[in-house]
Amino acid sequence: MRPLVSGPLKVVFLVLASLCAWYSGYLLAELIPDAPLSSAAYSIHSIGERPVLKAPVPKRQKCDHWTPCPPDTYAYRLLSGGGINKYAKICFEDNLLMGEKLGNVARGINIAIVNYVTGNVTATQHFDMYEGDNSGPMVKFIQSAPPKSLLFMVTYDDGSTRLNNDAKNAIEELGSKEIRNMKFRSSWVFLAAKGFELPSEIQREKINHSDTKNNRYSGWPAEIQIEGCILKEPS
């Protein structure tokens, strides 16, 4: 039978074993890169997993179009009002011509005139069609647009109550097919050209009538919009 290890020798053995374990741990810590344990655990866990491909963030287009307009065209977007807190907007070449942020949109018919050749805005104005006699001033404003002008029209709230026949004729002469169908609080947007013809494929007009059964808002129809690209004049 082998003799048992004496007490002092057993203590020395335990001390040497502890020193060896500490030194081994020290060397291991020096060899492993300095990284959080969670990162190391995640790296081990992710070994063998398929890489996740993330789609790039879509690039914002002019006037919030889904797809970009060709470089030789103007981008436009017309949005009618819809509900008391949904103001109308007119955007052209990524510039807000009329809208709540500018404080130049109001109840009635809102009109922006743009020089087709230069792309610069000529004038903007809103005409209340619920109160006051504003059909006459609106007709003069439309007629003041010089040749080769783009006219953008959008409604907010009511655009029909005080709209007289002369105003309807002036807008109809610009190519509107819906101006005589306007009703109380109809949502309406219209793109017109003065002194030249727009391509037939361009969406120029849209209307949505107030309907108590189908209104999106209380007493208000849903807002509507049209957008597209207008070919610039050849240089």
UniProtKB/TrEMBL annotation:
* Keywords from the UniProt entry: Disulfide bond, Lectin, Secreted, Signal
What highest taxon heads this organism's lineage? Answer: Eukaryota
Q: Where in the cell is it found?
A: Secreted
Residue ranges of domain ILEI/PANDER in the record: 107-195
An annotated Gene Ontology molecular function: carbohydrate binding
Gene Ontology cellular-component terms listed: extracellular region
Read off the Pfam families from this record. Answer: ILEI (PF15711)
Q: Which PROSITE patterns match?
A: GG_LECTIN
Q: Which family does it belong to?
A: Belongs to the FAM3 family.
**What is this protein identified as?**
FAM3 metabolism regulating signaling molecule B
- Organism in which the protein naturally occurs: Piliocolobus tephrosceles (Ugandan red Colobus)
Q: Which gene encodes it?
A: FAM3B
